[in-house]
Every structure is written in structure tokens, then in C-alpha cells.
Amino acid sequence: MSERVLEISNLQKSYGDNQVLKGVDLTLNKGEAVSIIGSSGSGKTTLLRCVNLLEEFHGGTVKIADKAIGYTETNGKRTRISNREITKDRALTGMVFQSFNLFPHLTALQNITLSLKKVQKKSNVEALEIANHWLERVGLPDRGDSFPGQLSGGQQQRVAIARAIAMNPLIMLFDEVTSALDPELINEVLDVIKALAGDGMTMLIVTHEMRFAYEVSKKVIFMNEGVIGVEGTPDEVFKNSNNERLVAFLKNTKF
Length: 255
Known about the structure:
This protein is an alpha/beta fold. It is built from nine helices and twelve strands. The chain has helices spanning about 45-50, 85-90, 110-120, 125-135, 155-165, 185-200, 210-215, 235-240, 245-250; strands at about 5-15, 20-30, 35, 60-65, 65-70, 70-75, 75-80, 95, 170-175, 205, 220-225, 225-230. The strands form three sheets. The protein has a six-stranded mixed beta sheet with strand order 8-9-10-3-11-12, sandwiched between helices. A four-stranded antiparallel beta sheet has the order 2-1-4-5, with helices on one face. Strand 11 and strand 12 form a beta hairpin. The protein starts with a strand and ends with a helix.
């Protein structure tokens, strides 16, 4: 039986009068790669940010490893937990953003080891061992002493991936990680994610790269106006769906 890592139930999120998530239900099992596709404004990134607790959500629950995160509920009243507890819950996930968010004054190795030492209290030796391992896994074994300004965009994003994974989260969240890259650098980042998925890493991926989503995913989710419009295997979503919104969306994408 599959081990459920993430369970989202009736997730709702609004910005003022604009309801962005209108009751999303989603599950993710250990070792699965699930891609989320959809038009801009459909709620994809907001969904990831709610899972990572970068956004407050206004209804529903998010459970990681069967633990409700972000809020407690007593007698039907939801209460957001303390910032300290939020930080602990957030550590269950690792998130890689569109922008690389590396510290420019730190080397690649220092960017990765910083949280290992500050948050997880690893020794210098252990933090360096972990950082070097993941730099090698993302194809940058010889760039540990390079500063972000000395790296290409693709290399910086791979360092950002290594930094997030080094913290050993239960789930990796990827939010349009190639959207800020020049076309010739996109595949080097996607190939790293494919390799990690092949190794059985649990991941939720927001992407506009349709061929990549088809190749890497156990399941694909098409979001439309704050709800899940279609959910299924890559073949079901990309080749066999009659959903009019999905068909129209795919016509305007490269696949």
C-alpha cells in the first residue's frame, strides 16, 4: 500500500474578494512526482505557497505525513500556530522558486551549508559532506567555491535545488523553476529534476514545460480558475481528455 505523504482537503485561499483556491483536494504518495499545469492565475503557485506555509489559507486542511500543518482546530475554530511552529512545519517541505534566491556574497557551498549549520545544527564537517554530495548530484562537483555571480542561471538554479534537498524534506516543491532561464539552460535543470524523480524523490511540480510534465510525472493535474479541472496519468491528461478548457490550454502550449 502506498504511503501518503501529502493530503490536501478543500483548500481555500482568497486575496480580498478574489478567491484564488476554491476547494482543492489533492494527494501525493511517497516517491511520486506530480505535475501541476494550467494558465497563469489558475492558482498553481498559490497552492504550492500554501503547502509551504508562505501563504495563509482560509479554509481546508493540509496534512504532511498525516500531520495537519499551519493551523490547529478546536471546537470548529481554526487558529494559526505560532511562527516558531510554522518554521518547524515548513521544514517538512523544500521549495525551489522561479528566482534562485541565492545569497550573492556566499559561495555555492556556503549557500547550501548555511541552513544545515544554523537550523539543523550540523557540524562544519557534516554540513560540507552533505553539501558536496548534493552539488555532485546536481552536476556541479567542481563549483562549490564559486559565487552566484560566477555561475550561469542554470547553474544557480541547480545550486538552489541542492540547497533545498540538502535539508532532507519529505516533499520537494518546484515552482516554475525554469521560467527565468534562457532556453538553452532549461534542459540542464529539468534533467536534474528528472533524475531526482527517477530516484524516488517525492515532488510536486508547477511547470509550463508540457513535455517534461508528461515524461516525469506519475500524475498530472490541470488547474482551472482555482479548482482541479482534470487529474490523471500523463496519457489521460495530455492525450485522452475531452475537457474543453484543458484541450484549449494544450493547443496554446508546446507538447
